[in-house]
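User: Before I run my own analysis I want an independent prediction to cross-check against. Here's the chain; please return only the structure tokens and, at the end, one sentence I can use as a sanity check.
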Amino acid sequence: MKGGAVLRLKELADLLMVKKIDGDIDVDITGIQMDSRKIEKGNLFVCVPSMNGLLDDRHQFIDDAVSKGAIATIVERDVGNHPNVTKIHVKSARYAMAIMSAHFYGHPSNALRLYGITGTNGKTTTSYIIETIFASHKLTMGLMGNNGMKINGTFYPTDINTQEPPVLQKNLRQMVNQNVDCCVMEVSSQGLDMARVVGCHFTVGIFTNLTQDHLDYHKTFESYRDAKGLLFSRLGNNSSHKNRQYAVLNADDPVSNHFKNRTAAEVITYGIKESADVSAKEITIGATGISFRLESFKGNIDIELKLIGRFNVYNTLAAITASLIEGIPLERIKSSLATMDNVRGRMELVNAGQNFLVLVDYSHTPDALENVLTTLKEFSKGRIITVFGCGGDRDASKRPKMGRIASALSDHVIITSDNPRSEDPVKIVTEIAAGIDNSSTNYELINNRATAIQAAIQMASKDDIVLIAGKGHENYQILHSETIHFDDREEAIKVLNTLD
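Assistant: Structure tokens:
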């Protein structure tokens, strides 16, 4: 079954035990949507409720959906009279949408091997390392994550990290139809909490790390942890020899014990400090790359790659563990890692022939920023000049923490705008600066991000490192209701090309 063509509404309704039906279910459904603007004739419109201020209640758009051709709706409450439109009343529209979308597209995750990666930091880099190794083993690859979607090397932009079920399942079906062997998916905490990946069969779940992030959504660290844990609690209960599932956990992160006790899948660990099934020894970190001795349950080998930073040792270990599960030989893993280039927006080198380093990185949490700066201090010969800001309408409690970290680990800090969204940019940079020790004088506030990048590069001299943090791969900036084009790399190149 290819899925995604036309299905009877009765077939979808029968997926739910508890429901109330008003109208005819012996009708054809041509698609599933939760956005009334995308409705086409014959679609099923799902009225998901509002979610922590991130989404508007879709019940209020039912008239628009019906006018565009929706012939059936999933609702959680009464929405008035709509003749000739079937209403299926459910307890959770999100759950209904997820399992109906998976069924509508023929359960595509059962037809490929799906690797899910969750954690605060490292998801994108880990996914790209896995893609590099798997592709070198002649596997056809798909990627879904923060940088967009890739199928067989073709890139498709996406609007959010973990897609909503109708889009996610449609994309997985597209991969299956193009004979993709494995898909590597970044799985966000919001995506897990919103049931976006319900209906996905993961072969492997991978945990990178857990530090403070998204508390504007989850409110507490425990809730954030528990949302991440949903990926692992759903693994392994129905695992047969043919359909084994695995949990790959970071042995050096204490949260891994929490996940280990909540999964029925076989647990395979990786790490540096604690005893692990896959570990790195004799680690060397430099300005041009990292190397280490890999010790694993499949043997030992020396690894070299161009990525920078101790955190990328962890990302590489996670990817290597996934590769060993896939059955890829150590020699193939070694050779593919040696040829891998930097990941876009992740410790990405911006080079115009200058005699100092300029790096663009997505580090937008306290832990990520601390990891990056600690790594830079390990090999820096000159000053570290850091440019960063914090996004608006997001967890404000991390702002002073990041200011304190940047000041402590940098020689000079320029605090600037990130994506202010609806907040006052001046207020955000002031809150960041509030975390810096009163006696410190190694920072300045430059609200305009382009001007801040210019100032940092122009003050740099031989052997210095300029870190432009926070936005990474993003090529936009959100200012109130306006989204403008803005790319840290482009801005850096502009300035570098003006230098003597």
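Sanity check: The chain has a mean pLDDT of 92.
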